[in-house]
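Example complex used in Figure S2.
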Amino acid sequence: MKKITLHIFLIIAGLLTLAPFIWMVSASLMNDGHASVYPPRFFPDEVTFIQFERLFSRLSVSRNLLNSVIVSFLVTFISLIFNSMAGYAFAKYRFAGKDKLFSLLLSSMIIPAQVTMLPLFLMLKSFGFINTYLAIIIPGMANIFGIFLIKQYAMSIPDSIIESARMDGASDFQIYWKIILPLCTPILVTLAIFTFMGTWNDFLWPLIALTDSSMYTLPVALANLMGEHTKDPELMMAGSVITIIPIIIVFLALQKYYIKGIMMGSVKE
Amino acid sequence: MATVELKNVSKIYSENVKAVDNINLKIEDKEFLVLVGPSGCGKSTTLRMVAGLESISTGEMFIDEKLVNDIQPKDRDIALVFQNYALYPHMTVFDNIAFGLKLRKIDKNEIQKRVKNVSDILELSDLLNRKPKALSGGQRQRVALGRAIVRNPKVFLFDEPLSNLDAKLRVQMRTEISKLHQKLGVTMIYVTHDQTEAMTMGDRIVVMKDGSIQQVDTPLNLYRKPVNTFVAGFIGTPSMNFIEGKFLINNGLEFNSLDESFVFLLPEKYIKKLENWSSRNIKLGIRPESFSYEPNHDDSVKIKIKISVFEPMGNESFLYFNLGGKEIVSRVPGIIEQKVGNEIDLYINADNLYFFDELTGNTIYV
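Predicted assembly (635 residues):
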């Protein structure tokens, strides 16, 4: 009985959470004006892809989509490399001032990103990187949270495995590349999802750093869409669908490893 | 084939911490040398210095008569087998064994051949496609051995390789490693805290304590002629019994325990060497196997004891009792059933006694 009540509660909660997403998808498939009639409709009378057509043909969203893809993939890839190198070094190398340096880095996490935006903008402007991909990629190339995650994970790798590789004749880079990275797969995937979602969804920084509409990422373009087409909820919903789909794909593809990443450390094999 | 030589080697972590203190040691070509001692005695650090995983603070290390102080581990041509196997968990057994060869850019067919050869020797042929987590402890350790053998190194190093295995497997692997040593005919240095492993495997044994070498000798010589109380107590199971006391000269040379409850006349042969020590504090050492139910020697000393613990082992028994204010363990042959509290006569083989200076712990040779 208790179980049934619980399940009913969970189903209702699930439907409530899903409802806006379902409405977003169905509204994106409606004709102009159909989403804002009274009484409101939950499903389209007839399914039409006209909103998507408009997005791509008239508003050149494909360019923004491409921007988002390029920036997100590059930031994810580059930051994984740097974070994993730094995390591994902090976990396993002995060097002077290691602990102090790491605490300093960690303590910088309490500074809100908004505080650093203006100086960062001025700095990138003096480099001439504003309104280029580099303005998004360079600040995202490494981050403390990622280094911390990888450091914690790499610390669980026994020293003897690394020493064993050293005896086998592996160089420092070969140890990193052939031993550490494969063993860190779960945490790398987890971090990849975090980074990809964070970069893809980021709004404020791209809005500041990218000035030309052809350079906009999807969330920025979508916000613009809202300004210009307030009366077209169907079009805006189509834009939202386009924005959200890649993330869902990435998440579903890596979900298996992601869960493994969360579970790590709780059970010793 | 190679010798390994350590000259005045020390490992100093900070001003006060000397993990290894001024070690001099020469390991001969094809020798099986065992470093043994309690944990924290510096034996593993010494081994890791030979491997190149720890830097040498002072002193010189030679492998094959070449100074290697500043040579990287990978260029020393040695292999190390770790206590926890240290296999690469994401690689198959084949890749684990072949990893070192691949890094050295050895020809693919040659790698195939050598891995096959090694896996035949170690009976791993059926497991080559498995990952380490699908192997038992013994199989994992054999893979670790294979990884070392396949490279044909000049020197093999073992860092407590059997401590993670259960008792039965340990005995089995012990003989396998000994056989391997005979078969390959290479220099091996083996670290263990288990004196049974040391005694059964080593050509020579180095007993270490607090970072310095206590004694280097063959297993039997260590047993017969320990240089001090530490070595005497470390080699042999159960450990040697020690009783503090003094010599008295009455009508002959007598040993008198500190609490004066245990007095006996020493055989004549000791008098000359020991009379100088009369009235100084000494320790008497008696091996557990020097006790017996029957006098088996002219110089046997008869003692009356009350059994406090009786442990039958089948072919022999351990009797615990109090003598000269000390808990003594004896190892007597035969299967005579005893009861705790029984008062019986035992005989000490006085021909085989050890004496130590109580102040320094050094052996007084007789």
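Chain A touches chain B at residues 158, 160-161, 163-170, 174, 178-179, 182-183, 269 (CB under 8 Å). Chain A is about 70% helix and 0% strand.
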